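Subject: complex prediction, re-run

Hi both,

The earlier run crashed halfway through, so I resubmitted it with identical inputs.
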Amino acid sequence: MPRITTSERGATRSRFIDAAKTEFAERGLAGARFDEISLAAGHAKGTIYNYFATKEALFFTIVEDWCGQLVAGFVPNPGEGAEAELREIARLDVEIARKDPALARVVINQVPGLASSHDEAVAAAIAPGVNLLTGVIAAGQASGLLANVHAPRTLARLFLTTLSGIEQEALADDSELDLDDVVNLVERLFISGLRR
Amino acid sequence: MPRITTSERGATRSRFIDAAKTEFAERGLAGARFDEISLAAGHAKGTIYNYFATKEALFFTIVEDWCGQLVAGFVPNPGEGAEAELREIARLDVEIARKDPALARVVINQVPGLASSHDEAVAAAIAPGVNLLTGVIAAGQASGLLANVHAPRTLARLFLTTLSGIEQEALADDSELDLDDVVNLVERLFISGLRR
Amino acid sequence: MPRITTSERGATRSRFIDAAKTEFAERGLAGARFDEISLAAGHAKGTIYNYFATKEALFFTIVEDWCGQLVAGFVPNPGEGAEAELREIARLDVEIARKDPALARVVINQVPGLASSHDEAVAAAIAPGVNLLTGVIAAGQASGLLANVHAPRTLARLFLTTLSGIEQEALADDSELDLDDVVNLVERLFISGLRR
Amino acid sequence: MPRITTSERGATRSRFIDAAKTEFAERGLAGARFDEISLAAGHAKGTIYNYFATKEALFFTIVEDWCGQLVAGFVPNPGEGAEAELREIARLDVEIARKDPALARVVINQVPGLASSHDEAVAAAIAPGVNLLTGVIAAGQASGLLANVHAPRTLARLFLTTLSGIEQEALADDSELDLDDVVNLVERLFISGLRR
DNA sequence: AATGAATGAGCATTCATTCAT
DNA sequence: TATGAATGAATGCTCATTCAT
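This time it finished cleanly. Structure:
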C-alpha cells in the first residue's frame, strides 16, 4: 500500500535512473561515476546511496527495466505459433533499443562482461525475459513446431544472446546493418534454424 | 640483462603474455592488476611497461594471438563448399577455447565491452579472423551457395558474434550446454540460415 | 564531517596551507610530497585534493598570500613621494620574509623557475603586488621624480626581481648579508637609479 | 697528457652537452629526461652515465660553460675603471644569452631554484664568474671609485643576481624589454648605485 | 532522507639508475 | 666504452564509500 512519501521516494529513484541512463549512454559503464549520477539527478553525492548500493546495482536496475518493458509489451498469441511469438519479442526488443540507441549499446555490450563477476545479479535482472522466452519455446517444442535440440531455457538464453549480438552489430557506427534489419536476421538465423 | 638477443626479448614478452592469461583467467580483465602480471611473470613491477603500454594492449595481444591461431590452423578447402569451411572454423575456435576455458570465458565476455571504448584496437585485433571469414562467405555467395542477404564482412562479424555467444553459453557454469555442442548449434542457428 | 560550515571549510583549508608552508620550508617545492602535506595537516591522503588541484596550485596560494600581506600592509602616502613608498614596500616585504625565513627562501627561489612552466599562474599570484608597484611607479613618473626609462609595469617587475634577488642573497647561509641590509641596498641599487 | 682516445672522449662529451642544451631549451630542466638526452646525442640510454653522474651535473656543466665563455671573453682594462669593466661583463653576458635565448631562459630561471638543493655545485659552477667580478669590484673599491658598502664577493653575487633578473625580464615573452636594454639597465640600476 | 566533507584502498605510471654482456 | 633490458622507489591521482550532522 504505497503512501504519499513512498511515491516521492519512487520519484527520486526514477530521477536517479534517468540520470544514470544519460551518464551510461555518454560515458559507458566503467566511465560513469556514481557521484556524477547523483549530482546529475540534482542531489548530493551521497544521496544515491540511499537508493542503490553500487553503480552496478543501478545498472542492473536499468537492465531489469528494459526486461520489464519487454515482458509488459508482449501480448501472447499462442494461436499464431511460437515462431511468430519469437519474432514479436525480437521486434519489441528492437523498439526498446531504438528509444535510446546510445544506452542500448552500453547495455548490450556490458551485460556479457558483467556476467562473470555478477553472475547471479545478471541472471536475476534478465530472469523475466528468460522466463517468458522459456515458456514460448517450451510451448513451441510441445506443439512439435520447434526442434527439441536443447532445453527450452538454454534456447531462451541463446535467443537473447543472438538477438543482442545482431543488435550490437546494427548499433555499431561503422556497420551497414540497421535496426530495421534485426528482426529479419533473427528470423533467418535463429528462428528458422529451430524449426524442426 | 643487457645486450639481450631478439629471441630472448621475445621470450620475456611471452612470459608476460602467459602470466597475463593466468591472471585474466583468474581475476577477469577488470580484476587483474597490471603490476601483478609483471610480478607473476617473474619480473619487477615496471618491466612490463617496456613491453606493453597498458593492460588493455596486453589483452588485445591475447585476442590477436587467439585470432592468429584460428587463421593459422585453418586449411582452406573450397571444394567442400563455404558451409563446410564455416563449420571447420567454428570447430577450430572451439578447440582453442577448450585449451584454456577460463581464459576463453574472459576473452569472449570482455571483447564486446571493450568494443565501445577501444573500437579500433578491437577491430585490429580480430581483423585477420574477420578477413578470413569475409573471404569464405564471399566465395560462398559467389558460388551461389550462400544467400546474399548482407555484405560478406557484415555476415563475417555476425558469425563471430553468434559463435562467441554460443561458446559463452557453453562455458557458463550453470549451463547444460557443452563445448561439444557448439559446432552443431552454429550449423543450425547460423550456417543453415544462410543457405539460400 | 558533513554539513560543515563555511568557516570550518576555511579552517581546513588554512590547515593545509600551514602544513604546506612547513613542508615547503623543510623540503623545498620539488622535495615536498602532496600526500604528505595532507597527512601533516592531520587529514587523509586524498583530502587535500578536495581543496587544491595540484601541489603547484597550493604553492601559488602561498605566493598569493604573501602578496596579499604586502598589499594589505601597505599604507599609501603619496605626499612623501614614490621613493619613500618603494622603500616602504621593500621594508614590508622584508618583514614578511623575516616571519618565516625558510619558507621565504623557497618562495623566492622557486618562483622564477615556475615562471616558465606556469607563466600565467605565477603572473596571477603576484598580480596584486605588481599592480600596487605599477601604480606607485606611474605616479612617481607622472610627478617627475622617477625617470621615464621604461613602462611602469616593467619597472614594477624589475623592482620585485631586484628585491627578491637581494633577499635571496640575504637569506643564503653563507652570506655576510642580513635581512636588515636589504632595504638600504634596494634604495642604493634600484631606487636611486630610478631617480631622474 | 691527452691521447687520441681522450680527444674522442671529449667529442662524445660535447655531443651530450649539445643535445642537453637543446633538450633543456625545449622542455626545461625538470621536463628534460636524462635518457632522452643520451638518445638525442646518438647514443644508448646508459652511455651518458659514463660522462655525467646526474642530470643536474650535466646542467651545471652548461652553467660552467656559460661562465667559462664569460671569463674567457673578458679583456681586463683596469685603466678604464671598474665601472667600464662591469659594463663590459654585462655586455658579454647578454651576448652569450643572445646565442640561444631559449637555453638562456632555462639557465637563468633554474639556477636560483637549484641553489637550495645543490648549493655547493651551483657555487662551483659560477665560481669563475664570481671571482672575476670580485676582483673587478675589489679593485674598484681600492681605487676609491666604488663604494665600500659590502664585501666585494657579496657585491659580485648581487651583480650577477641583478644582471640575471634583468635578462630574465628581457627574455620573457610578454615583456616590452629587449636584450638590448639590459646593459643600460644594469648601469642605471646597479653600477651607478655603487658609485661612491 | 539528505548532505557533502572526509576517507584511504587501490592502481597506474615514470624514469633515474644499475649492470651483465 | 657502449649497450639497453631490467629495476623499483617514488609519486600522483581517482573515486566508491562512510558517517556525523
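Chain D has a mean pLDDT of 93.

- K.
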